[in-house]
Amino acid sequence: MISCMGEALFPTEVPEIGDRPLRGAARTYRVALLIPLCGSAGLWAPSCISSAQVAVRELNRGDGIAGRPVELIMVDAALEAPTPVEAVVHELIEAGAIDAIVGMHISAVRQRLSKVVGQRVPYIYTPLYEGGEQTAGIFAIGETPDAQLGPALHYLQAQFRPRSWALIGNDYVWPRTSHAYAKAKLRDMSANLAFERYLPFGLRDMGRHVDELAASGAEAVLISLVGQDAVAFNRAFGMAGLDNRIVRLSCAVEENGLLASGGENLKRLFSAASYFGALPTEANGAFKEKYYSLHGEHAPVLNAIGQSTYEGMHFLAGLLGRDDAGWREGGQVIPCTLDYRSARRERATDEGVMRTPIYLARADGIQFSVIKRI
């Protein structure tokens, strides 16, 4: 599925900067925004689209990208999409219809796309992921397990002292790699592994797996299910009454997931992320003001997954600067001097490694309360 975003946000007229026209405005800078529009991860789409639109408005009120006004081209990056995303993206690149990619989708899709995109256009990959992306031309800016999952496991183990953990996730690279990391950490903390399962996407009846988890004797569970699958699990978990005795941790359950799960099913559920809508920072306050000014008070809820597309658009602009070809020189290495706008204040270190604060939050009804930086 492909669509061109927004007459209101992307006018056909040359955007103005004060009293002067945007440089190089003869042609727009077209960014393919790759997000799942259907399937298990489709839950995230409204927030991702809305957040990217805020970035586009900001960019088009400035110099755009590489001196050209920015336009979004929507592409369905769901595994369940009727046309494989790599086929769509290849055709768009071959036709010269896009200048860059900002992708918020699962790692299995990124791996498929890496074989197609090459270095023909810059590709910014925005969500949390398993780490280790080394493909030239792909810039992965999301959290990785060592920064996100490790500190959260240590905190919950110290606070609740569970004797054994359960691991449950979808069957693809991010959950399996994250769980391999988690198992090493659990061994270091002298905690046992009582249960481990990997489920296909779109499984709505989680009852059997919840029953098996309950019978395992686990006192904590790491949930690495995606979108609607995590919602189905949390509903079944709450209905079984397990939230009264088993602690839950996820790195991917966000505010949309809370709304869909229902507050009655969310007791003792924790999430670790670099961004929450309730984050009390100056950067987030400024982002929220722009977000709700553009979309109104009933806009999709803010969350880490959505914010990542906002950040990805600004990262792309910062990467290219005024030279839309210079990004190839560094391959996948992120320049340590790169500066770009973010609602979570992420920057690169002198070693060229991305650093960002990670926070732990607890579900408080259908909202997150940020506990601390970890």
From TrEMBL:
It comes from the Bacteria. Signal peptide: none annotated. The keyword Signal applies. Keywords: Signal. The keyword Signal applies. Residues 28-321 form the Leucine-binding protein domain. Belongs to the leucine-binding protein family. This is ABC-type branched-chain amino acid transport system, substrate-binding protein. It comes from Salinihabitans flavidus. The lineage of its organism: Bacteria, Pseudomonadati, Pseudomonadota, Alphaproteobacteria, Rhodobacterales.
